[in-house]
């Protein structure tokens, strides 16, 4: 009966219940022991075996509960670890996404800046060209313009009206320069009569031009 005094009170409650003994939760271990051993039909061997079974079941249940609690704790810790890993992965992905978006924004801003700089450069070149460009003006021949020497042949393409005297004078000047004798110098075998006629015409023209000159004076 010593085992009854060394057991737990909850084991004695279960033992009293199995033996159909009336008890309440306020009883102590000693009271329960006296209740069990003093009961009618008490069998020490049966009571001992029954008590051992109750203690074994209790320990088994406690171990099972402890194991389940440990397993649950491990599952909880694993779940927390997975959650933390997922959160860490999500933070890394979010950071990488922010970096990627920032790089795209920087590239876009760079392209915009380059485009604006190109526009400014083109505009500056256009403004510079507009400031320095002068439309070519049509050359107007002015016979009274004293800035050009009389020998300048500016009326080659901008012919002004000339008088008969001026035509004769031009012919005379060209004849004196040998323009009308070049063919004969290059080709001495030409007809001498024709050459004489050309010289005669020049002399005649010179006389005519001098007469016109006296007339104009």
From TrEMBL:
The keyword Coiled coil applies. Residues 190-217 have a biased composition (Polar residues). Keywords: Coiled coil. Residues 181-217 are annotated as: Disordered. Residues 66-112 form a coiled coil. It comes from the Eukaryota. The keyword Coiled coil applies. This is Uncharacterized protein. It comes from Trichonephila clavata.
